[in-house]
Amino acid sequence: MASGSTWSRKSSSLSEMPPKVLVCNGSEGSAHEHRCGTCRAWKSVTEFYKDSGNTASCCLTNSCKKCKDTRNHQTVRKPLGPLKNRQLMLKSRYRLTYDETVWLYWDQGKVCALCLLPVLFEKLVVDHDNSHHPENRHRACRECIRGMLCNDCNYRFLVCVEQFPHLQTKLVKNYLKRRPFATCI
Q: Is position 8 within any domain?
């Protein structure tokens, strides 16, 4: 290699290579280059952000600016909105579609299934039998679903009635046996 030529990584002569330095992550590289952990390319140190998690002034982020910006742009999620959030929760927790939940609401007469007071659809919660799946009480299969209740009935009244069976009326006993989706599977 001629004395005036520039150095390349493919050069076989060790005497012509620039000095290697240890970068913060412990790897070797030239003093003005850093290897991107994402695209694996050697790039100038100006193409990296400074690592805010490291107090040393020499430390750079593991990924170059281009890869980091691309990844950050891809991970930003748009808010779904309350209706879409409810649909996703119903599907993952109870394996119900939104339409099936609306059908359940209309089937029980647009009222809470226990207190029989009219309640808006958005204010009702899906009630299920927790004893059917004791290992995970926040997930339910379709056979567990009993109906839709207002918050007061679901969190106060129903808990008390399930613990003390002598307080159960005929309406409550019928509700606790109810399984509208047990035959629809």
A: no
Among residues 147, 152, 174, 173, which one has the least CA distance to residue 162? 173
pLDDT tens across 55-68, in order? 555 678 888 888 88
Does residue 103 fall inside a structural domain? yes
Domain count across the chain: 2
Give the 3-state secondary structure of 29-76.
EECCEEECCCCCCEEEHHHEEECCCCCCCCCEEEEEHHHHHHHHHHHC
Q: pTM surpassing 0.85?
A: no
In a domain, 185, yes or no: no
Tokens of 58: 């020499």
Alpha-carbon dihedral angle through residues 127, 129, 135, 137, given to the nearest 10 degrees: 20
Residue 145 CA to residue 129 CA, distance in Å, equals 6
